[in-house]
Amino acid sequence: MTRARGVFSLLILFALTAAVAAQDYPTRLIKLIHGFPVGGNVDVLARITAEEMSKGLGQPIIIEAKPGVVGTLAAETVARSEPDGYTLLFLPSAHAVTAAVYKSIKYNAVDDFAWISTVSFYPFVLCVPKDSKIQSLRDLLEQARAHPNGLTYGSTGIGSIHHMTIELMADASHIKFVNVPYPGEAQILTAMLRGDIDFGATTVTVAAPHIQSGAVRPLAVTSKQRWRDLPDVPTFDEAGLPGYEVISWSGYAAPAGTPRPIIDRISAEVQRAIKVPAVKERLEKLGGEAQGTTSDEMRSLVARQVALWAKLAKDANIEVQ
Question: What is the pLDDT of residue 5?
């Protein structure tokens, strides 16, 4: 009985200590780590939101880019960091894809993180070169069925979100396509413009200028509803592939074990920051829809996506060491 009282007292002490720490949080600068190149989409989104959040938190937020292995180096660093709210992770939905296909990662993509909030959501748009005979998604699928392994598409490598987006389409339609890897989205569009590949899927931000200029033809967006920036482009469901959806996101996480009051404090700042008109406008100019979530909602989102991509990886025999 005495031992039980001692354990209970320790738990109460830990809880009170965490509560006091959370009440004072933050008292020093915060490090925000992400796993992608400086100047890229993830880096820009992190800087836009962190700049505004630092005003509300009263402490500077410094950005540290730690690119490598599709963001896993950054994720592992944060997962192993002190859970005190001073080391955060900014990540895209590629986090869930990587967890599904990379067998060598040294963390649990869901359980090793305390989820804070999303920042924005954005779809991909499937495009073909302007001179392509393919006029619609149905045309693309029919031509692919008529010429098995005959149509090529661009991706940013095996296990990337671009690769898996097309593989999900291939799995749903029971068709095989040929993957041609490129360093980034810009190179996928360049390859399409040159006619080196038959089609590709990129974020709306990257594709929109080329769609507006007529250089590429959009066939469908991967969101459930038509996207505000491309109101004339049908969804996959409308274009002939019912039930298909891929929605990308970006957001904040911390190491698992970070006190809930601190998570709630940071989450409140994320929610506030993305509603600031200037921030919201900048996020939407990058092709996203500014939208936050609760910690539990974000955890559920990540878990669902890890399960989706893991099933696809198993069915399509996709694995990266």
Answer: 58
Q: Hey, what CATH topology would domain 2-121+248-315 get? A: D-Maltodextrin-Binding Protein; domain 2 (3.40.190)
pTM (2 d.p.)? 0.86
**Cβ atoms < 10 Å from Cβ of 231:** 7
Could you tell me the two tokens for 96? 């869930």
| All structural domains of the chain with their residue ranges | 2-121+248-315, 123-239
12-22 burial: b if 16+ Cβ within 10 Å, else e: eeeeeebeebb
- Give, for 302, the enclosing helix (H) or strand (E): helix 295-315
Write down the residue that tokens 């099933």 correspond to. Answer: 311
Res 184: pLDDT? 84
The CATH superfamily assigned to 123-239 is Periplasmic binding protein-like II (3.40.190.10)
* pLDDT value of residue 2: 56
pLDDT (0 to 100) of residue 185: 87
CA distances from 8 to 16, 17, 20, 257 (A): 12, 14, 18, 19
Question: Do the Cβ atoms of 169 and 156 come closer than 8 Å?
Answer: no
Please write the tens of the pLDDT for every residue from 140-149: 999 999 998 8
289-305 burial: b if 16+ Cβ within 10 Å, else e: bbebbbbeebbebbeeb
Domains 2-121+248-315 and 123-239 share a fold: yes
* pLDDT at residue 229 in the model: 87
